[in-house]
Structures are given as structure tokens and as C-alpha cells.
């Protein structure tokens, strides 16, 4: 997973970096498309993974945004969908991380229920009315702009994550292969039966040379 995230972020930053330096519209659109794809998938799977949920909540609060293109994108999630067939109590709502944290909200933050339910029914409101309670701007533009402003830093971190994950994967593969290495003495015994004394001598020789051969 770590390697996948690192590679994904590296591709996004690479496209953005090269696209900016060469003013290549195609690469810039590719980078934006990857960001859009990532956010839309995250919205769909918001409740499936607690780590993903925390990451989205952090992003929406940090960038003061809600959804992908707009706050109504949360209708793509089965729990926040506005369909009449949706039995969820969160129907046509948005996550609490979309809510505007005013001084009054912070002051009465101990009232956990009112804080968590502040996004209730917001998708049924107009942009203007919803904007009084939640962030209505989407996160795609804000995240894309932030990535564009921090291309080299993010690219270095992403490359480091990919290298670290690749190193771990290689170490695990080497360990598995060493565990699965057959007994060479037993293989010789199957090919040409030996007396027990000869077999033990071969095993002792192989054990004494394994550490030098590897």
C-alpha cells in the first residue's frame, strides 16, 4: 500500500512539474485527472476504511472544502446519497468535516451530537444557504493548487516512500526465498543414495560454506 501511494504521488507531481516547466497542458490535465480520480474514489469508500475517513476529514478541514467538484458530490456515497430509497440517517448530508467552524461552534464543541450532525440535510439546500453552514467549494481545485505549489517537496517524499516500500518488499521476497531453499544434501541423497556417515559429512560441509557463499 505504501509503495502504491508513493508511486501515485510521484506520477502526479511528475506530471505537474514537467507540465508547469514546459507549459504542457496535456500533462497538467493528466495530473489534475489523477487528483480527481483519487478524490472521487475516496468519497465512494469514505466509510469503508477508518484511515481513509480520517484522511478525508483532515483534508476537508485543512483546505476548507467539501466533496470533489462541490459539496453535492457526497451523493456518490451510499450513506450520503439523496435517493428516496436510501434508509441511512445521513441521507442527503455531508460529513461533519465540511462544517464551517465558527467561534460559536468551537465554543460549544463539547456538544458532540450537534457538531457531528451539523452537515445533516445540507445537500438539499442551495449553494447560498448551504454556504452559511458548510464549505461548498470542492477539494479538487484546492488540492491540485496545493500540489502545484509544493511539487518538488511532495515529489521527493513520494519517491522516498516508493523506495522504502520497494526495499521492504525486496527484503521480504529474499527472506521467503531463503526459507523455501531446498536441502541440498537431501537432493544429493535422492540423486545418488549415500551412507549416513557420508550424508552427515556433506551436510556439515554445506552448512560451513553457506555463510560464505551467500
From TrEMBL:
Tagged with keyword Transferase: no
Keywords per UniProt: Cell junction, Cell membrane, Cytoplasm, Disulfide bond, Glycoprotein, Membrane, Signal, Transmembrane, Transmembrane helix
InterPro entries in the record: Tetraspanin/Peripherin (IPR018499), Tetraspanin_EC2_sf (IPR008952)
CDD domains: penumbra_like_LEL
Keyword field contains Transmembrane helix: yes
Membrane topology: Multi-pass membrane protein
Main subcellular location of this protein, as a coarse class: other
Entry GO terms, CC: adherens junction; cytoplasm; plasma membrane; pore complex
GO MF annotation, one: enzyme binding
Source organism superkingdom: Eukaryota
GO biological process: pore complex assembly; protein localization to plasma membrane; protein maturation
Family matches, as SUPFAM superfamilies: Tetraspanin (SSF48652)
Protein name: Tetraspanin-33
Lineage summary: Eukaryota, Metazoa, Chordata, Craniata, Vertebrata
Amino acid at each position: 500500500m505504501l509503495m502504491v501511494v508513493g508511486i501515485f504521488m510521484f506520477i502526479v507531481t511528475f506530471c505537474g512539474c514537467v507540465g508547469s516547466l514546459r507549459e504542457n497542458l496535456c500533462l497538467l490535465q493528466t495530473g489534475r485527472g489523477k487528483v480527481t480520480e483519487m478524490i472521487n474514489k475516496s468519497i465512494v469508500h469514505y466509510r469503508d476504511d477508518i484511515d481513509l475517513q480520517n484522511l478525508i476529514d483532515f483534508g476537508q478541514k485543512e483546505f476548507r472544502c467539501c466533496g470533489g467538484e462541490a459539496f453535492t458530490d457526497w451523493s456518490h456515497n451510499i450513506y450520503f446519497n439523496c435517493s428516496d430509497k436510501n434508509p441511512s440517517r445521513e441521507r442527503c448530508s455531508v460529513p461533519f468535516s465540511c462544517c464551517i467552524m465558527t467561534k460559536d461552534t468551537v465554543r460549544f464543541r463539547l456538544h458532540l451530537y450537534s457538531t457531528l450532525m451539523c452537515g445533516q440535510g445540507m445537500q438539499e439546500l442551495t449553494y447560498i444557504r448551504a454556504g452559511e453552514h458548510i464549505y461548498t467549494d470542492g477539494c479538487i481545485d484546492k488540492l491540485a493548487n496545493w500540489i502545484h505549489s509544493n511539487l518538488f517537496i511532495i515529489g521527493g517524499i513520494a519517491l522516498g516512500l516508493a523506495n522504502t516500500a520497494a526495499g521492504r518488499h525486496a527484503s521480504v521476497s529474499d527472506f521467503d526465498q531463503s526459507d523455501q531453499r531446498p536441502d541440498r544434501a537431501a537432493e544429493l541423497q535422492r540423486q545418488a543414495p549415500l551412507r549416513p556417515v557420508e550424508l552427515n559429512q556433506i551436510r556439515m560441509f554445506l552448512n560451513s560454506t553457506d555463510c560464505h557463499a551467500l
